[in-house]
Amino acid sequence: MIRSYKFWIGFSMIFGLILSSLIFSVLFDSHVRQVQILYDDHMEMIGAAPFQPSLMFPMGTDALGYDIAMKVLQGAKYTLFSVILIGFLRVLVSFMFAIPLAIYMPEKIRGNLEQLLSAFYFVPLTIVSVFILTPVLWEQLRMPGWEEYFIFPYYARVGIEIFVLTILVVPLLGSMIGNIIASSLKEDFIKGALVLGASRWRIFSKHVMPHVWPKLVIVFFQQCVQVLIIFIHLGYFKLFFGGTDVDYNPLIPDPPVSTTNEWSGLIGDYYNLIHINPGIALGPIIMFGVAIYSFQLMAEGLLQYLDSRNVNVKRNKKKNKLSSVLQEKSVSIGKFEFTERVKSEVK
């Protein structure tokens, strides 16, 4: 049981958003309310879309009158599930890459490889993702007949995007996790286990993993935050999760829209209208901020819990050492008194 209020606050916020989105899709079939014109009791028009945030519309409406709060609620499950999945795959694949890097590779070669991989720190992953994902996510136009089509079907587009956003960070993240494993292998108790004849697998599973897995969980939360930020960037470039529906009408084309109402798609849809009505794009931006803050709370709470647990372990070790020392002293004093009393009786 993790005893950290920060962790549970962040977890409750993410879990609440996902659960609310699932309930909205099951009970209400993800129906988004649309109000283009608002009338009073006398059927006189008192307003037209887009509406500002109010009690009726907590996040306002877009230009077509769709309730932005309901769109955000509809797209929460797609956004957060994909973020959690990509973050998990990043850590898992990087961990598999880091195991041979830390255990079987000599330290000198690993250091040179780390210097080589450090160059990826200066490569903007968003730009690389845009170049790779544009032909995958952007709807194309076939000129004979003006037919709009995607190169890949929906699930293939989702799989390719998850694969690309996962594999781009494996070199850097694998090198970082490899350093964590390598530093654990230098501990004194690992050397003692080697002297006693423990196998590499036993050392890794019984001694290294208990020290590494809490750090991997913290890395997972950090990767979720990074994926959310990349989603925001891709939304700015009109590359939405699952594909971008493009209207090629030569007269009055509609702007590119998301096929799932996930949050980066909403930001991309409403970004051009932010100067006309800032409240339109404010809702998805706030929800991204809430999600990022929640993952950071979970990472910070888990880190504080681990630090407090390590402090308690050290205190218990000191108490055990102190009690054992006092016990040895009391035994020696007792022996001294016993020998003195025997000597006095003999005299």
| CATH fold call | MetI-like fold
CATH superfamily: MetI-like
Question: What is the approximate shape?
Answer: elongated
As a percent range, the share of strand residues is under 5%
CATH class: Mainly Alpha
Task: Write down the secondary-structure element order.
Answer: HEEHHHEEHHHHEEHH
Question: Whole-number average pLDDT?
Answer: 83
Ends: how far apart?
65 Å
Counting H and I runs of at least 4 residues, what is the number of helices? 10
The secondary-structure class comes to: mainly alpha
Strand order of the largest sheet: 1-2
The domain tally reads 1
From the coordinates shown, what is the CATH architecture?
Answer: Orthogonal Bundle
Q: How much helix is in the residues?
A: 55-70%
Largest sheet data: 2 strands, antiparallel
Show unreliable segments.
331-347
Structure description:
The protein has one domain (75-321): Orthogonal Bundle (MetI-like fold). The chain contains ten helices and six strands; from the N terminus they run αββαααββααααββαα. It has helices at 5-27, 68-103, 107-117, 125-137, 154-167, 170-185, 188-195, 200-236, 263-270, 278-346, and strands at 37-39, 45-48, 140-142, 147-149, 244-245, 257-258. The strands form three sheets. A two-stranded antiparallel sheet has the order 1-2. The chain is elongated, with a radius of gyration of 30 Å. Mean pLDDT is 83; it is low at 331-347.
